[in-house]
Task: structure prediction
Amino acid sequence: MLIAAVLMPVIIFWIFNSGFPAFGWAGRLVGGASPPNILLAISDDQSFPHAGAYGFRGINTPGFDRIAEEGILFNNAFSSAPGCSPSRASLLTGKYVWELEDAGSHASKFPVKFTTYTDILAGGGYHVGYTGKGWGPGNWNLSGRMQNPAGKNYSEIRDLTVPEHISEINYAANFESFLKTRKKNQPFCFWYGATEPHRRYSTGIGEKEGIRTEEISIPPFLPDVKEVREDMADYLYEIQHFDSHLVRMIEILEKSGELDNTVILVTSDNGMPFPRAKANLYEYGFHMPLAIRWGDRIKPGRVVDDLISLADIAPTLLQITGIVHPAEPESGLTMTGKSFYEILISPGSGLLEPERKYIYAGRERHSCSRWNNLSYPIRALRSHDYLYIKNFKPERWPAGAPVRYDENNNLVAGFHDIDDFMEDFVYTHRNDSLVKRYFDLAVSKRPLEEFFDIRKDPGCLNNLADLPEIQEILKKMRNDLHNRLIETGDPRVHGYGDIWETYERYHVMRRFPEPDWIK
Result:
């Protein structure tokens, strides 16, 4: 029995990737219709609403805007985590991050027992591949996987003329190369994973390339000063680079006659790499852009307000392709996400499925930012109007410990759960009267519970958790979150939450002083 338990996930994975016909579902399409292709374009660290289709000034995103105009624009799409590895694992598997063991953490492993929609489509006869950043960072091969969970890598074609800190991978050219390797009439599933707008940035490139800093709307948790506007312009430029390759991919599909039979989804993995955004479960950390086009199957020009999780994408794509698959818990094939296929094919806009009352999200370890590589565990529940957050370890520093040891055993500044925080304007000017409030918002310890009225406070600046008038709705959301975590097996509410501290991290490791609360 023990041997069978160990080998079964590997056998299932081999079956998926070989298209083995003994499984009746492999390669079978509901209704016998021609299966659609899939192109998922996913940027790296882009918050809602940073795209032209959302009315954001100062950015030019014709690719995203075209998908939205010829398909659906989603106003309320959310990632399952505010960091890349767990968010991408959730998207691939249709599960919440706390259901994914190592893969729910950052820079760890991706257990082979967790089957991805790419596994299933490959087993159903699809040509599957990716370019750029698939699932990661992390070591997928340590779990016995034969390739990145996003598929076979197509990233060999390079462009050496790009600016500093822009990836040399020619995403569009690699997509074209991928298409040439498929069999005749074979449907494809391609993952376009840019590494933009992940930091670092080429300082000043945004303004140099024509982005007008005076037009940029600065999030309310950042100081509105020249340095921040320039940094935002560099961030927006990298989103435009991501979008420029999407434009080329759309053109490739048009020329090949494949455009209208391809489901194109454009989104991101987590929020912008700025303080109080990425690695946080505030709005700018997990509220994502999302637009989807599917030929004449989707009525164009629609705007949808339903709450959508990126964990819903995997079951939606399986329903779209019509590939039937077993749903046996022991096989790892069950998906917690809910298909929004009916929303896609509906002719309407606005709120189409009122029963989608909540979005659930969580985070554990992001970077190596604390003594003994400890995590900062958060769970969140987002309704249309409110955001409830539970910080399971409020004694820990949310943005990482304030100091660490360098290679000479000297104490230097920390806060490593914020990208490039050491070079950020907010840290450099942390004691200035105009900046101190924003610095404190980013790094100070937080209470056990936070509650925000998103309608009035989209920047999540005013914690209302202690107000008497909101206690009834807070209690309901607290209980609803707890019940969902119990139902989906979250170790944090089942008495073994410290298991998250045991998952190995395979990237940068740092040393920190032992915190006072340990002693």
In short: The radius of gyration is 22 Å. Residues 360-502 form one domain.
